[in-house]
Amino acid sequence: MIKKAVVLAAGEGKRLRPFTETMPKVMLPVANKPLLEYVFDAVKKNGINEIIVIVGYKKEVIMEYFKDYKNVKITYVTQDKQLGTAHALLQAKKHIKNPFIVLAGDNIIDSGSIARLIKDQAEYSLLIKEHPNTSKYGVVFVEKRNISRIVEKPKEDVGKYISTGIYKLPSTVFTDIERCYLQGVHALSSVIQTLVDTGKHINTLLAKSWMDIVYPWDLIAVNETMIQTTSESTSGTIEKGVTIKGSVFIGKHTKVYAGCYIVGPVVIGESCEIGPHACIFPSTSIGNNTVVNPFSEIRNSVIMDDVHIASAASISHSIIGKGCLIRDNFSTIPGKTTIEIENEFKKLERPIGAMVGEDCIIESHVVVDPGRIIGRKCRIDPVKHIIKNIPSESKVM
């Protein structure tokens, strides 16, 4: 029986800036829970009682959040320099003596797929997933359920299966990783390819549900999916005249004022104030200590902790970072667009609104065009129309 899991959580997530400027990618909130917590929960459901977490970038954010995580022993190992997934896994060597599983901390995987991986009789196993855009990932070519070849991030979309990076491995794999590392091989997928080349059989299993967040807008899509799995519960104070439809979670000490209209699936955190006469529409998550003032409307959006949204805002298909102060009549315009990020141009097939980094102050009557990214700690003066990306710590006058 597998008793230990190694979770790789050392990376920054540069393509997810500005949201990863103050937290690692694995701590981005989805339905008000960090990505990493979904990974831990799925592992714990399979009876694994020890998790070795490889940390690096902003590791203190992870360690502080999970200090009270129950029923699993968490051991942190620091990867001082992010030199690839094989190097990251190598940091766990002294903690592993038996077969184990390894997962990425920034993907969401269902517990059933992990169960199938653990029960698989093969010595080496990998969860794979069919994907329409294979060029962003390690593409896996399969013959009789075994890996025949892995191609890391090919220039074009080839094949149909990608690696989830979730493996069951024997402890002897560390010898192979050390040998490959000395030869300049730093990616775990490349180590696996060398094992295939020497005749090792590495079994593949199809993952049922696996999701990855690569770009900021992926956060909205994954939030939309995961919010449907949240339990329905209403705590706090809900005044008379509030309409609630569908699955809605409202945290303790939250007050929802008269005239509010909430259609689930929606998650609202603790110690929030909503309304009066605010409208919250499906696939919206609202973090803790957040205020949404009268006549504001939010739909299909991720609102993080400690945000203050003034009256008559219209926020759709957007992300609002932690600690933002947004004045009256703020509007995001959702639409299909092309976004430049990390010197790449990405054409989005789904509507996208604004992506606003943490601790911004946005004054009244500001309108943001589809797909514009506003960095953290920006100040935007009243009556401005944002038509291009705004770097962090900028002032728009």
Nutshell version of this structure?
The protein is 16% helix and 33% strand.
Kindly describe this structure.
There is one protein chain. The protein is globular. The strands form nine sheets. The chain has a nine-stranded parallel sheet with strand order 15-18-21-24-27-30-35-38-40, with no helix packed on it. The protein has seven helices and 40 strands. The chain is of the alpha/beta class and 397 residues long. The longest helix is centred in the middle third of the chain and has 11 residues. 16% of the residues lie in helices and 33% in strands. It has two domains: 211 residues, Spore Coat Polysaccharide Biosynthesis Protein SpsA, Chain A (Alpha-Beta Complex), CATH 3.90.550.10; 172 residues, Hexapeptide repeat proteins (UDP N-Acetylglucosamine Acyltransferase, domain 1, 3 Solenoid). A hairpin with a 2-residue loop joins strand 9 and strand 10.
